[in-house]
Amino acid sequence: MAATELRRRGVPDATVARLPAYLRVLAAMADRGVRSTSSEELAAAVGVHSAKVRKDLSQLGTYGVRGVGYDVQHLSLEISRELGMTREWAVVIVGMGHLGRALAGHRGFFARGFRVAGLFDVDPAVIGERVGELTIQDLADLPGTVRGRDAIGVIATPESAAQQVADALVAAGVSSILNLAGGNLAVPDAVDVRPVEVAAELQILAFLRQRRDFDVDLERVAP
Amino acid sequence: MAATELRRRGVPDATVARLPAYLRVLAAMADRGVRSTSSEELAAAVGVHSAKVRKDLSQLGTYGVRGVGYDVQHLSLEISRELGMTREWAVVIVGMGHLGRALAGHRGFFARGFRVAGLFDVDPAVIGERVGELTIQDLADLPGTVRGRDAIGVIATPESAAQQVADALVAAGVSSILNLAGGNLAVPDAVDVRPVEVAAELQILAFLRQRRDFDVDLERVAP
DNA sequence: TAGATTGTTAATCGATTAACAATC
DNA sequence: TAGATTGTTAATCGATTAACAATC
């Protein structure tokens, strides 16, 4: 048992970051009725090399069979468990602008084992409004919704409000935060924050394009 | 000159990924009237260690002064240039659901040098609708909008439509794509795709939380 | 000058990749 | 058995970090 725990502890970050992609592809295969797959097939679907797939999967356990491949159902279940998808996670969304509403209605969340359990805002004009099956609540009511649950907070407010919302989430006992608002959040060590930076991604795309154009120009000058 | 080009070519991926964060912090400092800063200060604001800041910035050029620090304006300008923010990039958004509308109205884009130049959908019910200063166009009219411009395509459709939209973008000459729809896109080598995977980030948060809880349990059993 | 802070070097760490023995 | 494919090893590559000489 100790060995299992040490192994689990040690799944490399780069591997963890790829597990959702493997799980998505495996779920799609299962839907199509595919029973068995190989590292080569998974690699092609996810867009990496097969050695990486084998390395990654071997970090979790010995789920493949030499000469045969991987059982889609079994591997899917093991990755689900590893990612905590066998528990129920309550997702609370703070900020009910277009972005918050987009997330609230996102079918991919439910499909991947998350339940949107609360919608919050501070604007009296939207508090009380019904969005799908939920009613937008005052941010002050957050603690009542998250108490005693495995909750993940999603910040979908303007950047200027992000830190205050993060403070409120932490105070309510939320220790996993997805930050779509931009900016750096100050939170206690025990709290995980994952930023999603759309504007930064655009800048990275601009950088990459500019560099490519530049390299092409260089080739013209000195082929 | 050749040396400059070789250097530029060689900015490591990990550094490129952090440039937008440096630029954001520097812009905020400039707004507050701060003239000069240090690697230590930048590091604190971005949430990394100062050695990394110095290493990153030294990849771009020699913009600091030993014993003094960095000039906020100057460094800001250099990073802007490196990220291509001195050109104008036309952002076209495909998919005018809540997510697409959230992006269309995002003030952070404009602030960071991007111009939303086109909004597209295939649903006749929304084509022609005005959103901010633009009118939603038929996806078929994409080529007219992007012709002759540095364009970045943003896919904000459901996952099921993502590949078709990517094909349309590529056919129209767009070679930088931000994919918010999920899934893996097949595109030519000369096209850059950056995925933004909200659902995957939630799964990673769930994984990290589960591992932390598990480690705490372990400590209780064997302190 | 003395104090401060960069840019760079070297050491360390982690991730990727290729190759192949193990084994179904 | 012969062919296929994994799991693992070793080599390579890239990123991080600590330390400090250079220098304002």
From TrEMBL, chains A, B:
HAMAP family: Rex (MF_01131)
Residue stretches making up the CoA-binding domain: 84-184
Compartments where located: Cytoplasm
Recorded family membership: Belongs to the transcriptional regulatory Rex family.
Residue spans binding DNA: 21-60
Entry keyword Nuclease: no
Protein name, entry field: Redox-sensing transcriptional repressor Rex
Subunit-structure text: Homodimer.
Pfam family membership, one: CoA_binding
Main location: cytoplasm
Cited function: Modulates transcription in response to changes in cellular NADH/NAD(+) redox state.
Keywords, alphabetical: Cytoplasm, DNA-binding, NAD, Repressor, Transcription, Transcription regulation
Leader sequence residues: none
Highest taxon, organism lineage: Bacteria
Positions bound to NAD(+): G95, M96, G97, H98, L99, G100
